[in-house]
Design goal:
The protein is an all-alpha fold. 89% of the residues lie in helices and 0% in strands.
């Protein structure tokens, strides 16, 4: 019996740590999105070149944190339906990350072409 109580305490502790880390990663992702959006709006009104690129990079970074939170969430799920839901979220966020990185590469190429045309 004492070993079962110890194992239960360890499991509850690990669940609490994992849940806390998930919330921290999600919060960091949200903060990055908010800061990137505010910065993008500021640079939009100043007509700063490369604003779209910096905003896309901020969104990609935020998605990486949120994806990390979802991957960590797989540790705490207990039912197959929850695993399927987390898997779908991971797939969707992975796809969004891919699209944003594709947009970043396209924006970098357009920026490089503009520099070559001007120089």
């Amino acid at each position: 019996m004492p070993m079962d109580m110890f194992n239960g305490a360890i499991e509850r502790f690990m669940m609490a740590v994992a849940t806390g880390c998930i919330h921290i990663l999600e919060l960091i992702g949200v903060v990055i999105i908010m800061l990137s959006a505010v910065r993008a709006i500021y640079h939009y009104f100043k007509r700063t070149p490369g604003m779209r690129l910096r905003f896309a990079e901020g969104m990609a970074l935020a998605l990486e944190f949120k994806l990390g939170g979802e991957i960590l969430r797989t540790v705490v799920v207990r039912e197959w339906s929850e695993i399927a839901m987390v898997g779908a979220i991971i797939a969707l966020r992975g796809f969004l990350t891919f699209l944003i990185h594709w947009e970043i590469k396209g924006e970098e190429a357009r920026s490089q072409l503009k520099q070559n045309d001007q120089g």
